[in-house]
Amino acid sequence: MSFQVIGLPVSRGVAIGRAVLVASSRVDVAHYFIDESRVESEIARLRLARDAVAGELSLLKRDLPAEAPAELSALLDVHLMLLHDDALTGATKQWIVERHYNAEWALSAQLEVLARQFDEMEDEYLRERKADLEQVVERMLRALAHGPGASFAAAPAVRARDFAGEDPLVLVANDIAPADMLHFKGGVFTGFVTDVGGRTSHTAIVARSMDIPAVVGAREASRIIRQDDWVIIDGDNGLVIVNPSPIVLEEYRFRQRQAELERERLSRLRHTPAVTLDGERIELLANIELPEDASAALEAGAVGVGLFRSEFLFMNRGGELPGEDEQFEAYRAAVEAMNGLPVTIRTVDIGADKPLDRMSVNELRHEHALNPALGLRAIRWSLSEPGMFRQQLRAILRASAYGKVRLLIPMVAHLSEVKLTLDALARAKQQLTDAGRPYVDVEVGAMIEVPAAALMLPVFLRYFDFVSIGTNDLIQYTLAIDRADESVAHLYDPWHPAVLALVAGTIRQAGEAGKHVSVCGEMAGDPAFTELLLGMGLRSFSMHPAQIAAIKQRVLRADTRRCVVRATSLLEAEDPRDQGVRLVAG
After folding, report:
1. Each residue of 414-427: pLDDT tens digit?
2. Which of 31, 100, 183, 202 is labelled catalytic?
3. 31, 79, 183, 520: which one is catalytic?
4. 520 catalytic residue (yes or no)
5. Max mean pLDDT range (192-196, 484-488, 577-581)
6. Is 563 a catalytic residue?
7. 467: β partners
8. 526 pLDDT exceeds 80?
9. Are 295 and 303 in contact (CB under 8 A)?
10. CATH for 3-23+159-264, among 3.50.30.10, 3.90.420.10, 3.40.50.970, 2.70.40.10?
11. Most exposed among 2, 9, 177, 523, judged by the fewest C-beta atoms under 10 Å?
């Protein structure tokens, strides 16, 4: 039966494929693909987990006191029966063999299938057995987390490949953790659907960066879409069509072909210099998450890396932080891959929607805070972990000996943070000097992503060589909107006069001080804002490589003198969004 689900359109285009569900669980599990060579060992992990849980349950039953009610013994028998039922472990094995899921993902996927079957049972007693099934699966997931091979989750053999045959796949989930997104980044999925999230939630940003269609905030999508359902994701209109009719399917396939032709046309611009009609040269940089992304940046025509999000080196490692040498090798790989072009490395921005797998005492307090976005994150976290911070600073400085490196500090708000950061940097330099390790003095910049930083800019510019505007967080903190919360997503507004005033003021003040300024948030990669940002005086944009061609096309068609006139009018408007739409159309 065909039906539709409505959500928020966050990444344009059309995706068509079979649904792969990542079921939400009370136990967090990793989701990644395994290589053929690991199938048997992953099945062995599953078998060992089952045997371990069977042993636990048998011991519990044996040790029941004589006065224990008979129902308790019967309940343990039910759990043991479910544990050995081929519908659970046998079918889970098939997910590993056929789809090459890791054991945890396979178990979660089969739980989702069986839970739906229980929900559809007419007998109330049988429906209630779903809770027993969930408890058994959670015991197995915990056994997998602590059993042999658990450490493999920190470094799976395969990042993402399609083991599903000819059919394309789309991912459907309640939400997708940033660590999981790293594994899905390799291209196996042609689109994403999540129940939660807003336009600048992490899933939305990664989907746009991968240049694939996505719909978030689709509420009950992961509960009503089934494994292997055919799904159309309309990323332009926020529409998800499940089991579409042949006519609808053909219409969307036509739209897919048109979009592919447009992408091919834009790709021809990749080696064309980004110069406006009136001769202004514009710097188009790339945002990357991992060293191997540098090749995509060069292929897209980027003239450097404006943002290397170093926190992705810290994720999906079972909580073990990367050491100095490991970080150095990653940074050096990115720097060398860029062949002399500049690479701006942001210090770790852990927190809010990007937590670590295992937390220190400080981080545990943060995790359970009422609002993690306002807690111990970014530079606050780094300064609270001075040993880790100096390791990262030394690794970045060491990489500077192999190319042009710039250092970027996230979420600066207090002058005390600035001074502590520069002190830590000076100490890291002295340690490298004492150890005889080569490095180059790097330019140091601040992320402007909280209103306090924008308002403190004249002071901050005395300490920093450049600034980079992180519009995603700047909008969030200016408007007091959680950008990952779909219930207030309609209030997240990059056209808000206060947001535009802060962006324009930052660009103007940095220019007057002779300091380089760029925008590395979502606004930089959105063609709707290109002329506006040019009119504000911006000459450096940083975005995902997939977005560079579309922005370059806008730049090549723009006259900055006209952009200034239109931007001035827009900044004075009561409702900038209305004029902004007309500016883009014009």
Report:
1. 999 999 999 999 99
2. 202
3. 520
4. yes
5. 192-196
6. no
7. 446, 517
8. yes
9. no
10. 3.50.30.10
11. 2
